[in-house]
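Here is one chain, start to finish.
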Amino acid sequence: MTELMSSGIELMFAGMGIVFLFLTMLVIVINTMSGLIQRYFPEEPVSSISIPVAKNTAIDKSYIAAITAAIHQYRSTH
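Its structure:
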């Protein structure tokens, strides 16, 4: 019985070691890939997109009321 327990414990540690090594290698590979992608494909700065809007545009009060009602209904149900 002692032999069986020691074999089981050895198998458990071997399995845990393999999983630990695999996860460690996975973290290293993901970090390496992230670094390579950031080096060779840098993220370009986002240009500000401006939507032309007239400064004196009056928003219809029915639109404001509809948006306010929709927000109130969403917040009351969630």
